[in-house]
Write a structure and sequence with these properties.
It is built from two helices and eleven strands, in the order αβββββββαββββ. 23% of the residues are buried. The strands form three sheets. Strands 1, 2, 3, 4 and 9 form a five-stranded antiparallel sheet that branches. A four-stranded antiparallel sheet has the order 7-6-10-11, with no helix packed on it. It has a two-stranded antiparallel ribbon with strand order 5-8. It is mainly beta and 177 residues long. It has one domain: Immunoglobulin-like, CATH 2.60.40.1240. Keywords: Signal.
Length: 177
């Protein structure tokens, strides 16, 4: 009887060692990144990350129907309406890639494929091309000028060439809803 009580007490001690306040040994540690307020004209997106080649894409914000943009030296009117996507890209490969922000595309509800608006990107001083190294995380905006009645539905994301896909022709479609 005494052995049973000792064994039961040992099991109880082991079980209480994994109390609710502790992480199980298999959980990976994570960085605590501070929350930031969403910009007034923007909607926060809570989408799972998507991979294209060795680049991870996380869409975190969307603003649509912007009639104009203001930069440090000019105001720029949209032909239709600007769409701004807040994007985080992370290098997941074994080496760096040359990431091209201008290669990203927005697909509308009618199936039209819209290229990044180069002038809007320049006015808002967003990056053009940059080296995305292993484990490097970069956050920026993409700007598109859509026809007035068009609705954005998909970001076609291109991560860049990899050792196994030197041209990266297909991209990865990320639904906005």
């Amino acid at each position: 009887m005494r052995k049973r009580l000792t064994a039961a007490a040992s099991v109880l001690v082991l079980l209480t060692g994994c109390s609710a306040g502790q992480e199980p040994p298999s959980a990976k540690p994570v960085y605590d990144l501070p929350a930031r307020e969403v910009r007034p004209d923007e909607t926060a997106l809570h989408l799972p990350p998507a991979l294209n080649g060795e680049t991870e894409f996380s869409l975190i914000g969307l603003a649509a129907g912007l009639p104009s943009l203001t930069g440090s030296h000019t105001e720029f009117e949209a032909k239709g309406g600007f769409v701004r996507l807040r994007l985080v890209v992370t290098g997941k490969g074994v080496s760096g890639i040359l990431f091209d922000t201008r290669r990203q595309q927005l697909v509308t509800d009618s199936g039209a494929v819209i290229a990044v608006d180069n002038q809007a990107m320049t006015i808002k001083r967003q990056p053009d091309k940059f080296e995305l190294g292993r484990g490097v995380r970069v956050e920026f905006d993409l700007y598109f000028d859509l026809p007035k009645e068009a609705k954005p539905v998909v970001l076609r994301a291109f991560g860049g060439p990899t050792l196994t896909d030197m041209k990266n022709l297909t991209g990865t479609d990320i639904k906005l809803a």
